Structures are given as structure tokens and as C-alpha cells.
Amino acid sequence: MLDLERQYRPLRQELAEALAEVLDSRQFILGESVAAFERAAEAHLGVAHAVGCSSGTDALWLALAATGLGPGAAVVTTPFSFFASVSAILRAGANAVLADIDPATFNLDPRAVEAVLDGPGGSSVRAVLPVHLYGQTTFSPGFGKTHGLTVIEDAAQAWGAESQGVKAGGLGEAAAFSFYPTKNLSAAGDAGMVTTNSDQVAERLRMLRQHGMRRRYYHDELGWNARMDGFQGAILGVKLKYITGWNQARRTVAERYDALFRAAGLAEGGPYPAQGIVLPREVEGSRHVWHQYVIRSSRRDALREFLSSRQIGTEIYYPVPLHLQDALKSLGYSEGEFPEAERAACEVLALPIFPELREDEQQTVVGAIADFLG
User: Fold this and answer.
1) Are residues 257 and 167 in the same domain?
2) CATH number, position 105
3) Which of 198, 227, 242 is the last residue of a domain?
4) Is the backbone peptide bond immediately before 103 cis, with ω within 30 degrees of 0?
């Protein structure tokens, strides 16, 4: 699925030197390496503020808390995402409300959100948390203002993605990024970031990530220990210089997959698969960064087992929709309420994708799928 060695090898010396600078400075928590990365991230994303933190999950909680989304507020999000998209809402004390996905993009369907707003309890909804799943933005700029909602982007998989020329991170009041080691822009451990164009939100973010302190040992409110460490800031500062090229390489890999599958006659129009597979697509007006390349197959589990027998790695993102997770039964949803998310969970399969993936390796993947379908 992912060969981190191919990315690490040419950067080894540069990364080692950056880590040595942190050792020499002894600024192990926050410090100049984190501050420098934050400044570079602001410039890269075109946002006023970028606040480093300890993980993508903490970034989501910080974004919600700093924008005042707590008890009494309802936040609409998707049932087809990683667990943290909902758990962070609950951790902030808000109510999580779910809406179904678009079967073509797997992202939160704006029409489903509007149906929630028009339905019972819609008046309590104060925010929407769209997930830019697999590296493609959902919702265009202005959706929140049109509907009177605060927009908190879950941009964990979407560093560098764009919608109508605006990068993820600047599409709402705040956005949460993850730098988990498998992400397009990755740390050497857990790390995250919140971006915002609001001076007030940024000030609260920096306070909340340090136990609610504006002055050392003076706590203004309940915060959390959610600081980024200096080593991760140093590594991310190095890798940020290369992310534009890496994202473009991922786009090239995705284009090759598309061409190979179509040349082999395996691609179906969709959005649902029949005998072949349905390919992912880039929405007009957006720029996909292809964190994952996810196909749909009506025989997904058998296909995955077949590819495994050929020593081809795959993954399922995600096999169980959030409304059917045991830990989230308290949300009150039941099977059948979000049919698009439930069907996607049975059909999606992520294929190997990373910037250094070779064309001959992609041919092997496509050839194996052709053998299975043949």
C-alpha cells in the first residue's frame, strides 16, 4: 500500500540535520522548529494562522472548542469517515448529527445536510464538519455562510487539495489536519495542525493546546496538553518543501491508474459497480491530492483476498460506517438510515498509491484485477 522507505531515503541527511538542530536547541516541546513550520504552513496554504498540535484528532477537538462549538450545539458530519470525525464532536460536548454521502465522491452530500437542516431538530444545528475524504474537498467556499453555519473542515487527508482555487484549510472558520505517518505530508509519529483566518480563534487555539494557559501556570479555562513536539516540527518543516511535487506525483499515479483501467476495459460508469469496477473521479472545480485511490467493486472482499494472494496490498477505508459502530450507539441511528454510506462500506477498496509508485507496479495491480474479473 505504501513504501515510506522510497520517500525517506533521499531525505535522510536533511532530516537528520533538522533533528540535530532540535537536539542542540533543546526546544523539545513547541519551540522554533514548530514556529518555523507554522509560518511556512501559513504561506503554503494561504491562511492567516496555522497552529501546530499533537495529532489530527486533537486538531479536530481544538478547532471545535476554539470556535465555541460545545454543549447545546449540534454539528452535522458524515457517517463515512474515520472515528475521530465524530468522537471529536462528542469530546467537545456537542451533539453529532449525521447526513449521508454522495455515492460518486464518498463525501458528505450537501443535499443531505440541507435535509437535516429542514427536518426536526434542524434549528439546533450550528455547524457542519465536512470531511475531505481521500484527498478531495467537499463543499465549495461559501456553503457555511449560505446556510448560516460554522464550517469546521476535517482536512486530515487533504493537505494541498483545493476547491475553486481555495486550498483546504481556508474553506471554513477552522480546519484540522493530520500528519500521521501515512498522510501525504507526514510526521515521524503523531502530529496535527489547525488553520484559521480568525485572529480570535487562533488566540484561543494556542491557549487551549497548553492547558488553557495564556500565561504560564495561570489557567483561564479547561484546555488540554495538545502541543506539537520540536522533532515533528523539524521533520514537517523539511517535508513541506517537497509536498507540492509529491502531490503532483500522486496525481500522475491516479491518471495512470485511470488510463490503465480504461485501456483494460474494466471501468464502469457508476456510481455503483456491476461486473467491473467504478473508478474514483475528480470533481470539476476541485484539485484532488489523491491521499487514497479508491475503487468500488461489488465483489470487494473476494477481490481483496485475490490481490493479497498476489502480494498486492489494499485497505478498506472504512468497513463499518460510524452510525453502526458499537461505541456510537448512543447517537440513536440504526442500520438502513444512511444507505449510501452503508453500501460504500461494502464496496470500497483502496489500491496502492504513493508518489514513488512505478508504472510497472501499477500495471501489475491492474493486471491482477483484470485476472480476477476475467
Assistant:
1) no
2) 3.40.640.10
3) 242
4) no
- Residue range(s) defining the domain that contains residue 223: 4-242
Amino acid 79: pLDDT? 98
Number of domains the chain is built from? 2
The SS3 call for residue 338 is coil
CATH code: domain of residue 296: 3.90.1150.10
Q: Does pLDDT of 140 surpass 80?
A: no
What phi and psi values does residue 216 have, to the nearest 5 degrees?
-55, 125
Q: For residues 141 and 244, which has the higher predicted lDDT (pLDDT)? A: 244
Sign of dihedral through CA atoms 110, 162, 14, 36? Answer: negative
Mean pLDDT throughout 79-87? 97
Q: How confident is the model at residue 167 (pLDDT cuts 50, 70, 90)?
A: very high
Give the confidence band of 232 by pLDDT, cuts at 50, 70, 90: very high
> Does one domain contain both 114 and 259?
no
- Residue 144 exposure: Cα atoms within 13 Å on the Cβ side: 19
Q: Which residues are CB-contacts of 7 (< 8 A; sequence separation ≥ 6)?
A: 246, 354, 355, 356
Give the confidence band of 6 by pLDDT, cuts at 50, 70, 90. very high
Angle at 249 between CA 193 and CA 283, to 5 degrees: 75
Please indicate, yes or no, whether residues 92 and 235 belong to a single structural domain of this protein. yes
Joined grid coordinates for residue 115? 435535509
Residue type at position 122: G
Structure confidence at residue 146 (pLDDT): 85
Look at residue 158 in the predicted model and tell me its pLDDT. 98
350 vs 356: CA distance, rounded Å:
17
CB-based contacts of 1, cutoff 8 Å, min separation 6: 313, 314, 315, 350, 352
Report cis status (omega within 30 of 0) of the bond before 318: yes
**Dist. CA 279–CA 293, nearest whole Å:** 9
| Residue of 180, 234, 244 lying closest to 15 (CA atoms) | 234
